[in-house]
Write a structure and sequence with these properties.
450 residues; 3 strands; globular
Length: 450
């Protein structure tokens, strides 16, 4: 257990000069690197610098213990773990008996490295995560450029800056920014491959898969496999111009991927571990948690019914009954996803709202998510976006959303995890914005002529 170290973290909550100085150096290093990376990628650096700097300030307000707006979180768990590792390296304490990987150890390792040189860290971790979030924006910018041949830098900057989960959990003491960077890398890899830039595509997919599996392996394994599977289908099986040899090799690779998923997931997803995604979801769906999903009012036999002939029914002739849903894992996940879908997609509903700010934050997050999803679907069905590439990216986003909605029954944690789906959808959404903007300009032009 980390109880002793948790106490140590609380006692070390006073900011140190080394932490502040180290944080500023880290932030400046990231901002400087953005200029080089943006030039190489042929994208705009100004929105990235503005959003990163702004989010760093937001993170200072929300996650510094001395701030009047300080938000307590499970960050102390990771800090305690990282500090113990650092103390062990320095020969000043015992090694915490906690598995590094598969598990949550990659982020504590980063905290340990920062703590080893800077001591107790807050500013440095916020600066690091703000910088990583900036890298995510660069990756998304390049994806948009590859997909639509247009620069969506300012629209993207506005979109990410108005997302409450990005602002709350990006520049934080948590690991969300690294996980989101992995998700953006998967989209970037698909986008590169769409332009037949194989080397860049495979390189992007490789570091994306690494981050997804290193940061959150229990959820990352599903998204990573989805990205790799989408790449194999899109560039080995889909389309009329693939050679027979390429199709055979791709089919074999896809078969191997599917066969390897069960053992890989059982290795990477801890069973009955309270620190896993499903473990947290179970804890946060307890009746005494204020932001858990609430049942729909009434007992009618609607789409989702606990007792009656609904589409999903626990008792009665539902289309997917309990027995059918538990026949194998994929169907179980699908059934749970459909059961939670109204809340996960449209909630919180008016009867669920409480007095806390989290309800309004969740509501704004849902409006933002629906806006991004609507723009993404606009692009997918448009003439410009109609094709296998956009369908592949949309498919990965759908898989991630179904996975999260199958296990999340609490709005506070849902918006945090659903943000990864939003990251995947964002390049499609910005491309959809360009489609709508172009059609609107044509409409105004025709109206002026007439």
């Amino acid at each position: 257990m980390l109880t002793g170290y948790d106490c140590a973290v609380e006692s070390e909550s006073i900011l140190s000069l080394s932490d502040a100085a180290g944080g500023l150096v880290i932030l400046l290093a990231f901002l400087s690197s953005f200029m080089f990376i943006a030039k190489k990628m042929l994208v705009s650096v100004t929105p990235v610098i503005l959003v990163t700097s702004g989010f760093f300030i937001v993170g200072m307000f929300l996650y510094l213990p001395v701030s009047p707006f300080y938000i307590p979180s499970d960050a102390s768990y990771y800090q305690a773990w990282g500090y113990s590792l650092s103390d062990y390296w320095a020969g000043e304490g015992p090694m915490v008996d906690r598995q590094i990987w598969p598990g949550k150890g990659f982020w504590p390792l980063i905290i340990a490295a920062l703590h080893f040189f800077l001591g107790p860290i807050y500013v440095a971790a916020i600066a690091f995560n703000s910088g990583v979030f900036g890298l995510m924006i660069l990756a998304l910018q390049k994806s948009i450029l590859l997909l639509s041949s247009k620069s969506g830098s300012w629209v993207l900057g506005f979109l990410v800056a108005t997302s409450t989960p990005f602002a709350l959990f990006g520049p934080s003491l948590l690991r969300e920014s690294l996980f989101w960077l992995g998700a953006s890398g998967g989209v970037l890899g698909i986008s590169y491959l769409a332009r037949r830039e194989v080397r860049n595509g495979l390189l992007s997919l490789s570091w994306a898969v690494f981050l997804l599996l290193a940061i959150r392996p229990d959820a990352g394994v599903v998204i990573a496999y989805s990205f790799v599977g989408a790449a194999i289908v899109l560039f080995g099986l889909a389309g009329p111009f693939q050679s027979k040899r390429k199709k055979i090799l791709s089919a074999l690779a896809l078969t191997g991927l599917l066969v390897s998923f069960p053992p890989a997931s059982s290795f990477l997803i801890p069973i009955n571990d309270p620190a896993s995604v499903e473990g947290y979801a179970s804890i946060l769906s307890a009746p005494d948690i204020t932001t858990r999903f609430l049942p729909f009012p009434g007992d009618g036999p609607g789409l989702l019914s606990n007792d009656g002939p609904g589409l999903l029914s626990n008792d009665g002739p539902g289309l997917l009954s309990n027995d059918g849903c538990e026949s194998f894992l994929a169907l179980t996940v699908l059934c749970k996803s459909l059961g939670h879908l109204p809340n996960a997609l449209f909630g919180p509903f008016y009867w669920e709202y409480g007095s806390g700010a989290i309800w309004w934050i969740s509501g704004m997050s849902t409006l933002h998510f629906l806006s991004v999803s609507g723009l993404a679907l606009t692009y997918v069905v448009s003439r410009e976006g109609r094709g296998w590439i956009s369908l592949g990216v949309l498919g990965v986003a759908l898989v991630s959303f179904l996975m999260f909605s199958s296990i999340m029954t609490n709005y506070g944690i849902l918006i945090r995890f659903r943000a990864a789906t939003e990251v995947i959808l964002t390049p499609l959404a910005i491309s959809g914005y360009f489609v709508i903007s172009s059609e609107w300009k044509k409409f105004l032009s025709n109206r002026t002529k007439s």
